[in-house]
Amino acid sequence: MATTPAKAPAPDKRRLILDAAVRVFARRGFNQCRVADIADEAGVAYGLVYHYFRSKDQVLSTLFEERWNVMVEVIEQVDEQELAAREKLRTVAGFIFESYRHDPDLMKVIIVEVTRAANSFGRTHLPEIRLAYDGIARIVAGGVQSGEFRDVVTPSFAAMAFYGAVEQVLTGWIFADEAIGAVEFEGAKDAIVETICGGLNG
Amino acid sequence: MATTPAKAPAPDKRRLILDAAVRVFARRGFNQCRVADIADEAGVAYGLVYHYFRSKDQVLSTLFEERWNVMVEVIEQVDEQELAAREKLRTVAGFIFESYRHDPDLMKVIIVEVTRAANSFGRTHLPEIRLAYDGIARIVAGGVQSGEFRDVVTPSFAAMAFYGAVEQVLTGWIFADEAIGAVEFEGAKDAIVETICGGLNG
Amino acid sequence: MATTPAKAPAPDKRRLILDAAVRVFARRGFNQCRVADIADEAGVAYGLVYHYFRSKDQVLSTLFEERWNVMVEVIEQVDEQELAAREKLRTVAGFIFESYRHDPDLMKVIIVEVTRAANSFGRTHLPEIRLAYDGIARIVAGGVQSGEFRDVVTPSFAAMAFYGAVEQVLTGWIFADEAIGAVEFEGAKDAIVETICGGLNG
Amino acid sequence: MATTPAKAPAPDKRRLILDAAVRVFARRGFNQCRVADIADEAGVAYGLVYHYFRSKDQVLSTLFEERWNVMVEVIEQVDEQELAAREKLRTVAGFIFESYRHDPDLMKVIIVEVTRAANSFGRTHLPEIRLAYDGIARIVAGGVQSGEFRDVVTPSFAAMAFYGAVEQVLTGWIFADEAIGAVEFEGAKDAIVETICGGLNG
DNA sequence: AATGAATGAGTCTTCATTCAT
DNA sequence: AATGAATGAAGACTCATTCAT
Questions:
Q1: Among A13, A83, C163, D202, whose Cα sits 20 to 30 Å from the Cα of D128?
Q2: What is the extent of the structural domain holding A128?
Q3: How far is the CA of D102 from the C1' of F5 (A)?
Q4: C93-146 pLDDT, tens per residue?
Q5: Is the CB of A46 under 7 A from strand E?
Q6: Positions of chain E reached by protein Cβ under 7 A
Q7: Is residue C1 in a domain?
């Protein structure tokens, strides 16, 4: 957001490779991609990928960590604000949906190849993934303590349900090959909160 | 030769292979498994896997379809019963959690390798997967029509949230290497319904 | 020697690969050879090499062990015979030179790629290599004990000198691209014994 | 900037690289070393290696030639002296063993990576290697002509045996990871001469 | 039906060398 | 002279699939 001042920022080859990797991973999936695809997409020589990254795995891990750290931080910052728990959850959902809106490829890669890949990167990055769940659980716990939320399910269960619902919506968008409209993006965070906080019951 | 005589059930090699595949796929993941692993686990010759199945992919697809069809049918049957929508959802959640309780390996494989594998089997089996979503959405729609549910989110959105929450709970169990207690299984379906239908708000 | 009865022994593919490996390793050296070269030379598919051997390294190790074990055994058997130490050494030298005469490629590979490769296979197979040195040293020690040999250098030093001289002669043959004549083979063992046992001094 | 002023000897980068190469080649072997390892060990930039040397091969060749030329010269000078052939051989063996004592890494590299590498550098440098053999053979021939040595084996065969014995002793030291004691260094040259010239026979 | 040897395309990774600065 | 980013060819190993018996 602040990297492009006036004329032309030196095109960092490392960044070029990471951005290219996002595109090819999103397009065909991590396992279906050859390292050559990344290099080609980035317009750099094959070997340069290995100059900057130890392995193909590390390219994906780097992408994940870059973004996931931001999300974990956002969740924490949101929790520190003076807001109703419901509003905090809305903000978190909004941030995640906005992340997808801003860079759908990156979010697709993170969710499909890491977050939901229980047998490969999901297990490797489990500690980091849990940081996000825990942050959400703390928001819920705060809501329970303040009396805003009922004390019917454990905060960590509620966090699971909340995050699961959010990710499923994203998965729906990922599977849908059509572009997502602005209205849907806007409505999604409200719908999530309406469902999880308000409940379906009349 | 008959599938189920009187005493000793004929050890159907095809079944042996499928069951072995579930175990090895659950243990190390579909991609990390070689066809030889399946054959070894089943105690049959390498080539026999290819006698019964066209490919390694087809082994997984068969496992998925066997189970998923049951689930889709259950959802439909539940919807046909004379029940409150909330009770229908509770039954569906209960069935899914029971499925995991009964055969955690199979459910793990189906969820991790198919349902959440957007770049491989998830896309292949998308139509079948959507059948389940649609079934749930119909239950919600019925609840809205009868006035039981508020008309705040679309039924298909609610179905996503519901199913996403359920799957996330299962994912949590899958990641947790410890065994899940009976109480948790029982409580899970109530907690899901309490969260999605009742809502967190007090 | 006993594997070929009457007509045509089934051409064991594993053996085919080993024999082919000897030829290509001798021709261009282990490091300069690709696994494909072995397969091509053997007339089998690439993958078959890996069906029978864990790695390219293991092909060489197998070749080495097959032959080296024979040599160690011969040295031991020679030592058990009722012979003057000098005759024992002559027999050992003769066996080694005959080994080269019978299969120069194999001996070249063993010496160049294992025995003299202190940074790779030489270190891996050091224990086995030392078995041969030790056997020779025992022969010398016997000669000293019987009074046949003077007690001027340690048996293990004498063994080193003896084996070093033998190997250097072989190395000379290996470097010489011309074929070695029968006379030279015959003379070599005598010359070695004459040099090491008789000494150069008049 | 001058190569050798008064006090601080200018740290010739070329020399730095050569010395570093000796250490890393000795440690892990030529083939197991990357050019980066040499540069790192020398504390210079990667590219500088290629500023001073055409290739990685040339670094090793330079090291070999520097030292080997000295040895060939020593052998020639020894032969020109008024000494018994036996004393000449003792001096040559002594020089080689002293070379190892003074810089074991360098001698290890020369022997393991060049002299005994029949499929790579050994073949490239064969002419130079033979110069040493020839020099030793001339010493033996002189001994035969003067009647000091018996005329039982050809001088070139005797040279092979002598050099082979010497190198085998060095190889033993190279393989032994422990340091070699002063006594052993001293005794080695006598033992070699005692064995090759005196002979084992009593 | 059952076996397991045989096939060969696919791909990650390494690393010597070049080159712009 | 010195730096280190950039290049790309080379090769070991994997493993799904086929096939002869």
A1: C163
A2: 61-198
A3: 39
A4: 999 999 999 999 999 999 999 999 999 999 999 999 999 999 999 999 999 999
A5: yes
A6: 1-20
A7: no
